[in-house]
Amino acid sequence: MAMIRVNNLAVSYGSGEHAKQVVNDVSFDVAAGETFGLVGESGCGKSTVLGALAGRNKNWSGSIAIDGEQISTKRTRSQLAMQQMVFQDPFGSLHPRHTIGRTLLEPLEIHGLDQRQERIEAVLRDVGLPTAFRYRFPHQLSGGQRQRVAIARALILKPRILLLDEPTSALDVSIQAEILNLLKDLRQREKLTYILVSHDMAVIAHLCDRIAVMQGGAFVEVAVREDLLRGTVAHPYTRTLLDGSRGYVASRSGQTPIRTRSKA
Ligand SMILES: Nc1ncnc2c1ncn2[C@@H]1O[C@H](COP(=O)(O)OP(=O)(O)OP(=O)(O)O)[C@@H](O)[C@H]1O
Ligand SMILES: [Mg+2]
Fold first, then answer.
1. Which tens digit of pLDDT belongs to each residue from 41-75?
2. 18 close to 25: Cβ distance less than 8 angstroms
């Protein structure tokens, strides 16, 4: 069964005569355990699709089903906990004056979960950080460590789905592969399903089973990973994206860590 099933999704910003629809008629399924990639030029609507799935943007129509359950624009707590977002900027996404422990405590309080200290320690271990990091502030961490904290915060409610919005593009090149490999491990260990937005086709090819190419708020193509690696993509726009990252995708390896780079 599909973990995520989206049909005829349309998403708008604003209301009344100022309403602007930025996502049109998007449909896709993501199987449990799959990583579904979303690529496309800036402003095409990738983050908006994730926002609608995560319950951050309520101005949507169409249908969204998570693990077989239809989601309405009003969600229960457990529906909200099912999917968590990780953002590009590990500097901006953590509160600068809250310790890591406090940042991780917050979702537990909101969702009324017990065994809080145990959960905080366990999730820090899960993302490869020392448990003593709970006493630190974000400025006392490296960029990669902060992104691990952001991933820990996403995981602490035990979601089934992570919505990853450019999770490595703000990081130093040498750290990117580390975080990608952590995401890959977590997917397997925690049996997670991912939707991953990235501009980096090497990142996409490393992690994704299928890839949707967006343009102007709509899907123009859904390709499988092998198509990207072989270059046998159908849509001219997908080809343009692929040409922009030539060499990086071809030098990928399915198992060993890759070094990712920004666009050529
Ligand atoms: N809060 C908002 N209010 C109004 N319009 C918005 C808002 N957020 C995004 N938009 C518009 O919606 C469209 C899609 O934006 P979105 O952020 O989803 O693009 P994106 O594909 O994630 O781009 P990028 O790759 O730059 O992150 C853009 O035209 C953008 O200007
Ligand atoms: Mg975006």
1. 999 999 999 999 999 999 999 999 999 999 988 88
2. no
**pTM for the whole structure:** 0.91
- Least Cα distance to 129 among 165, 90, 88 occurs for 90
The domain spans of the chain are 4-92+159-259
Confirm or reject: Cβ of 42 under 6 Å from ligand 1.
yes
Residues with CB under 5 A from ligand 2 (ion): 47
Q: How far is the CA of 252 from the centre of ligand 2 (A)?
A: 25
The answer to whether the CB of 181 falls within 8 A of the CB of 22 is: no
CATH code of 4-92+159-259, in short, is 3.40.50.300
Place of tokens 């630190």: 136
Closest CA to 241 of 217, 264, 208: 264
Atom 4 of ligand 1, residue of closest alpha carbon: 13
Is the beta carbon of 48 within 6 A of some atom in ligand 1? yes
Number of CB atoms found within 10 A of residue 111's CB = 14
Q: Are 231 and 244 in contact (CB under 8 A)?
A: no
- Rounded alpha-carbon distances, angstroms, from residue 59 to 11, 79, 109, 158, 243: 6, 17, 27, 26, 35
